[in-house]
Design a protein that fits this description.
globular, mainly alpha, 176 residues
């Protein structure tokens, strides 16, 4: 009985938010697919991420009490998943690109969410940033930028793993 309770708690704490984020990122992927060329799509995703990175500190000066107050942060994280995936999208050998986007978004969110719990704080800042005399806005923008770069690297690694799996699946080793 206790084991089932632990499984339910882990599902509600980690898996369910990851699945919801995967659905959100896949929806943004559908919207980004309206842009026809891949280069314009990547530029659009960078511009959206940059806009949310600059708006986010102003938005977070207010008290966050509603669930939709997390949308700027989730959008930045979704852009960090979609940018590397868009770079590798042409090389992923599958007809439906939505499934790898969903898997990449879920795994990226799950990794960052669990690593955030493991650190017991959301502080991704290098120690030198703490020692600088920055205004509050600049400090928050730089910390958001550092977090975005971390999310971008994690999203790129997971997209690369999905790319390798799709290539191996379509072109198995000759010894088999």
């Amino acid at each position: 009985m206790g084991f089932i309770l632990i499984i339910r708690a882990l599902f509600l704490l980690f898996i369910l938010p990851s699945l919801i984020f995967g659905i959100y990122a896949t929806g943004l992927y559908y919207l980004a697919q309206k842009v026809e060329t891949a280069s314009h799509r990547i530029i659009l995703l960078f511009c959206v991420a940059l806009a949310f990175l600059l708006i986010n500190p102003v938005y977070h000066t207010f008290i966050m009490i509603r669930p939709w107050d997390l949308i700027p942060d989730l959008t930045i994280m979704a852009m960090a998943v979609l940018i590397p995936f868009s770079l590798m999208e042409a090389y992923i050998l599958t007809r439906r690109k939505e499934i790898p986007v969903f898997v990449c978004a879920v795994l990226t969110f799950l990794y960052l969410f669990i690593s955030g719990f493991a650190a017991l704080s959301g502080n991704y800042l290098p120690s030198f940033l703490d020692s600088l005399q920055l205004s509050d806005y600049t400090f928050i923008v730089l910390s958001s930028l550092i977090r975005f770069i971390k999310e971008l690297v994690v999203g790129g690694v997971i997209s690369g793993i999905i790319l390798i799996i799709s290539r191996l699946k379509s072109h198995p080793c000759p010894g088999r």
